[in-house]
Amino acid sequence: MATEVATGLPRGRALTREDLAEMPDDGHRYELLDGVLIVSPAPSTRHQRALRNLFRVIDAACPESLEVLFAPLDVVLADDTVMQPDLVVARVEDLTERQPCRPDSGRDS
Predict the structure, then answer these.
(1) Contact 9, 37 (CB under 8 A)
(2) 3-class state of residue 68 by DSSP
(3) How does pLDDT run along the chain (109 residues), one tens digit per residue?
(4) Strands of 81-83's sheet, edge to edge?
(5) What region does 28 belong to: left with phi over 0, alpha with psi -120 to 50, or beta?
(6) Whole-structure pTM over 0.70, yes or no?
(7) Dist. CA 32–CA 42, nearest whole Å
(8) Under 8 Å CB-to-CB from 97, ≥6 apart: which residues?
(9) Residue-by-residue DSSP string for 12-39
(10) Which of 12, 44, 59, 61 could cysteine-pair with 68, CB 3.0–4.6 Å?
């Protein structure tokens, strides 16, 4: 006999940015890839140290027109694809208050 667990997630359709906004703030990384929810645990100390070192190298090499940012930061590629890469290098002019913005997608505040 199978036990069904209620998740509160919609069934029968791809998830969207709106659904992602309802995820709990529990230390996990929630991302969407083509409407499919991807949940990752918090990174390890070793991972964070490597990320710190990578940030230093990239940040030192960036011109003033670019900025290097850490996760958590949503990068919205489509309504059903929202990623949180460890590091984001974005043009300063493409940054909004909440996230990097694709030049062809318009501004999102």
Answers:
(1) yes
(2) strand
(3) 444 444 567 777 888 888 888 888 887 888 898 898 988 888 899 999 999 999 999 999 999 999 999 877 888 888 889 888 999 898 888 887 765 555 455 444 4
(4) 36-40, 29-33, 81-83, 75-78
(5) beta
(6) no
(7) 17
(8) 109
(9) SS---HHHHTTS--SS-EEEEETTEEEE
(10) 59
- Residue (of 23, 57, 58) closest to 37 by Cα position: 23
User: In the structure encoding, which two tokens stand for residue 30, read together?
Assistant: 């929630």
Q: Which two tokens stand for residue 34?
A: 């083509």
In the block, residue with structure tokens 């667990």: 5
d(C-alpha 52, C-alpha 50), whole Å: 5
